[in-house]
Amino acid sequence: MKRKTKEIVALLLSLAILAGGCWYISRMFMPDRTFYGAGWSMYREEKRDSVDVMFVGSSFVYCDVIPGKLYADTGRTSYVVSAPVCTVATSYYYIREALRTQSPEQIFLEVSSIFFDEYSQYADVAVGYMPWGVNRLGAIFASAAPESRFGLLFPPYSYHQRWQEMELPAFFKRGDETPDPWAGYMYLKEAKPMERGQAEPVELESISFEKNCRYLQKIVELCKDRSISLVCFMSPSCRPYGEAELELIREQLGDAGLRDFNEDAEEIGLDLTTDFYDERHLNFSGAMKFSAFLAEEYGESWQSLPRRDFDGELWSARADKILDPDEGDV
CA 286, CA 264: separation in Å to the nearest integer? Predict the structure, then answer.
């Protein structure tokens, strides 16, 4: 009996060592991630329970919302938790993972993703940089195509050739293990003149609309269970969805409601010649205007939120960064 017990213990210990080794190798072989969303290593450098408001979604969030500007105007902290082509299912697991270290009073969810395909073509990034755990596993099977899952479960399979370009320090410290100077925002300076139009009608048969709606409801319920105020919104765009698509979203959200900021484009002050990076994303100039509008509309209600213990020096640097965005990191 004792021998059998020792064998079981030895087997479990071996499996633990193997799993730990695989985790460490996977972590080191993944390229640093400091831009265009999915910056989980940087997110986890935030002081625990220091974020008042969280913004979640796809590039329509990380290109359009500047936490440093919101802090400068309201004195309240926020963070953008997002990824390229972040599906509704990915957003659900992102929120679950984000809530492991933060307890925001309010979450803003960009809901254009309800019309995304079931599987993101950027799943290797969106899911691949998530910390290991049940949320990552859930996201792998909900957001990644079957042929992509093995590489996400065992990253060295996808990144094994990187050993030739890696330098020794990478095996001890990742370059993205520092606080994000932009708190999740992606700085885009270039301006492209645009014309306002309307997005193509959505063919619901070509996407997994029912699955997206199920995960949207899971997000609504999760926020309700955690007593988190949820704001579902559409970011400003030169190609906004039509009324038929917006009505579909409103039907799904019910009492939660939809805030379409395309209705406020004139009040926000967006200029089609200077404020857009492309037809669906704001550049820095446009993001500053949109963030200022958010601060004006929601800033007063944020003042009633409980005060948190946060890194004042870091947030002051983030507020200063918007004054000279081309100047180094925080």
Answer: 13
Q: Which two tokens stand for residue 262?
A: 């395309």
pLDDT digit string, tens, across residues 69-91: 999 999 999 999 999 999 999 99
- Asked if the structure places residue 114 within a domain, the reply is yes
d(CA 146, CA 142): 10
Indicate the residue type of 198. Q
CB within 8 Å of 160: residues ≥ 6 apart: 29
Strands 106-110 and 78-82: unpaired
288 within a domain of the structure (yes/no)? yes
Per DSSP, the residues of 239-268 read S---HHHHHHHHHHHGGG--EEGGGGHHHH
Please report which confidence band the pLDDT of residue 2 belongs to, taking 50, 70 and 90 as the band edges.
low
Instruction: Tell me, yes or no, whether 6 lies in a domain.
Output: no
- Locate tokens 């269970």: which residue? 225
Q: Are 234 and 259 in contact (CB under 8 A)?
A: yes
In order of 121, 204, 327, the CA distances from 238 in angstroms are 23, 22, 30
Distance CA 69, CA 63 (A): 13
Domain that holds residue 47: 33-153+177-321
Judge whether 123 and 58 are in contact, CB under 8 Å: no
Residue 310 in any domain: the answer is yes
* Contacts with 303 (C-beta within 8 Å, 6 or more apart), sequence order: 74, 75, 76
64: domain CATH number? 3.40.50.1110
| Total of domains in the chain | 1
Phi, psi of 182 (to 5 degrees): -105, 0
Q: Which of 166-175, 213-222, 284-293 has the lowest mean pLDDT?
A: 166-175
Paired strand residues for 231:
108
